Amino acid sequence: MISIGLSAQLDSNLIHRLDAMVTADQQCRGIVRAIRNGQSDTISIDQANSQMRKTDSLHGIQLKAIFDQYGFVGYDLAGKAGSHHFWMLVQHQDQHVDFQLAVLEKMKVAAENGNASFQDYAYLIDRIKVNQGQPQIYGTQLTLNEDSTSYTPKPVIAPDQLNTRRATAGLPPIEFYIKAMNKRHFGTIKKE
User: Fold this and answer.
1) What beta strand segments (E) does the chain contain?
2) CB of 153 closer than 8 Å to CB of 184
3) Most exposed of 49, 91, 126, 161 (fewest Cβ within 10 Å)?
4) Residue 158 pLDDT > 60, yes or no?
5) pLDDT tens-digit readout, 75-115
6) How confident is the model at residue 46 (pLDDT cuts 50, 70, 90)?
């Protein structure tokens, strides 16, 4: 892996733009999570999901323009946080799998050259695989189990080798990831 030194000239306008988009993105998703957890009843889940879809749609237009101008937004352009923000917003473009695939192609090169997170790359490739109805590679995309008491990975290739693949991508074992996601979404770690 070749390491790229960070440029002293990061694009501060792009960084601020991505920060604002992520703030809106996470606000929408936080409201949906709060409603699902019974922590909010000011709007319905349908209204919250509708607002989230609108936000994602508006962001999609902006992300495509950014991608057309810069390609994948790597560390050298927006720092680690800015690159992560670009990736996160692309993750939420599930209605535009072709766009996600185009970003993934450029992101792979950036990650191989040390200019992007390989962990983020693993999440994006899994997201795309799931969006295409294929088994994922790293087990990053989860769903609730049958009784909705815990998360479980959506279908993965060679499940017996999942933790080995996760380790090569710098991801924790799947059991740890599931516990962390249960804590995030349910507020406590579910008993096994």
Assistant:
1) 142-144, 151-153
2) no
3) 161
4) yes
5) 999 999 999 999 999 999 999 999 999 999 999 999 999 99
6) very high
Dmax over CA atoms of the chain, in Å, equals 51
Rounded alpha-carbon distances, angstroms, from residue 179 to 28, 126, 147: 24, 19, 16
Residue type, 70: Y
Model-level pTM?
Answer: 0.87
How many CB atoms within 10 Å of residue 166?
A: 22
State percent of the chain over pLDDT 70: 93
Which among 41, 114, 105 is positioned nearest to 76, based on CA atoms? 114
- Domain residue ranges in the chain: 12-131, 142-186
Characterize 96-129 residue by residue with b for buried, 16 or more Cβ atoms within 10 angstroms of its Cβ, and e for exposed.
beeebebbbebbbebbeebbbbbbbbbbbbbbbb
Tokens 């995309």 belong to residue:
141
Distance CA 38, CA 184 (A): 14
Strands 142-144 and 151-153: antiparallel
The 10s digit of each residue's pLDDT in 61-86 is: 999 999 999 999 999 999 999 999 99
Q: Computed from CA positions of residues 177, 150, 156, 110, in that sequence, does the dihedral angle turn out positive or negative?
A: negative
Residue 136 φ then ψ, to 5°: -85, 170
With contact defined as beta carbons under 8 Å apart, do 73 and 66 qualify? yes
